[in-house]
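Cross-posting from the modeling subforum.

Setting up a comparison between two proteins and wanted a second pair of eyes on the formatting. Protein 1 (sequence, then structure tokens):
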Amino acid sequence: MKKYKFTIKGHEYDVEILSFEHNVAELEVNGTHYSVEVQFQREVKQTRTVKLVRSAVPLPSQEESRIPPPATGGSHPLKTPLPGTILKILVKAGDSVKKGDTLLIMEAMKMENSIFAEKDGRVVSIRVKEGDTVLQNDVLLELE
């Protein structure tokens, strides 16, 4: 809050007023914390600053903090990396694909972007058609 330097009988003291509410001042003198009651000859101004007090956040239970194992089997959705328009779909449902194969081409930010297979598998379903406008994280197709 405010910092002062006092000299008392030749000794220097670095004093920082941390807070002052009602008639109690929280001070730090040369790194040591003190709570000091102050007596006034006249009326004390009340502070208008609201002091926020947050409740403690409960710790998660063991079940809540456990990381679930990765899902095995089932379909794997392939999502759009950024918004754009689907230009060409190079696969159809039932096709087998290898990791790195080009599945479709989309236009995003005035550039053509190839969307590649993230893993080996088979195309289960295609959720878009040529000319569709997609948003980021929309599901394009599903691999199995």
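Protein 2 (same layout):
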Amino acid sequence: MGKGKKVDSKEVGLEIGLIIFKYFFHEEHLHYGYWTEGLPRDLAHLVQAQENYSNFLISQIPAGVTKILDVGCGVGRLASKLINLGYKVDGVLPSAILVNHARNLLGDKSHIFECTFEELRTDNRYDLILFSESFQYVNLEKALENSGKLLNEGGHLLISDFFKTEAAGESPIGGGHKLVKFYDLVSRYPLKNLKDLDITRETAPTLNLANDLLSNVGHPIWNLIINYLTSNYPYLSKFLQWKYRNKIAKINRIYFSGALNAENFATFKSYRLLLYKEAKA
């Protein structure tokens, strides 16, 4: 009998995140919030901040757009909202777990391609390709090349995601392409920049909420697990802490040191909304 397919830890993490958000917030949004002036920076208002983000993103879609490709469409919440507004929307997802959620939500209203954006091959063409917190996961060159193939003449590319700044030191927050590298690369393609909005200030407070949750919930649970293993299975505990000492140290450094905060995010990341229009000669 062959071995079963291994479960990807990222897939499990996504599913856990969906369960938590659905239970506590009755929502399945898995993206940053957009914290407008006067909106309290607390968990009670996270869903409102995330709804603000979706509304802000939609407000940036140019007039005349009818068909959209939502790259990394998550569970399909944004796609569903766009469809209800009259847009025709397809999605792209490499995650089987999220694909199932999206297909259950959208049904036959949207076609979900189960692959990476770089692997996507279709005869469909779109007025706008949307990357909402998914651009950091794609290969820059391949993504820009494929965008050109999938856009209708005069189509748009809308990117809303964070990038790495040139700040000195090591960022405790992972992810993102270098902003200067992106600017250099995109300048070589037939794309005219229409908007470049820095929304770091509006999105950064989300990190403080994540940090509070990790400090007040995640860290105590982590310590309870360690203490339980140490007390009841001392030899196993010593072996595991030796075997995975580097991973454990990394978990403590990244998640439980308090470094995942808005200040560090604003230092090492730049959250941008970028709108480009195809400008072929």
